Amino acid sequence: MPGTDDTDRMKQLAITLVDAYVRKDRDLLDQTVAEVGDDTEGAVSELKVFGSFLSRRVQETGVVWKPADSREAVASAVADMLPPEVEFAVITVWEAYSLGEEEAAERFTNGDPTVYLHMLAAFSAAIGQAVYKPAELISTLRIASGGSE
User: Which domain of life is it from (predicted)?
Assistant: First the structure.
């Protein structure tokens, strides 16, 4: 099936981005963003799937997770991981995005698709850790994406 290798690669890169935020590993984050390269759309798509999956897991487990929790968690996840201007953009975009103000969120990205990449990876890392231990989270994402542990 054409494109399967690219899809699998994007899934693995998306998981690695989440892992970098979980571990607070800037080098791994920078390396993985470089590997994503121009295909941020593919990675963002995978991260949206992971974010939705983890949001459902939080709801199913009954963990209380309010919009304010996600804003604080994303801000905490990106703290000291990104250059200050990118960190600010990610937090600002997440604030608008989490309130359903997608047009405003798009404006705040200033056309930089990596802002969404960081935002969704940080969100997945944060919300995932509300229900999973770090290693369990990454293992669960690998299994959920059809990969191996």
Answer: Bacteria
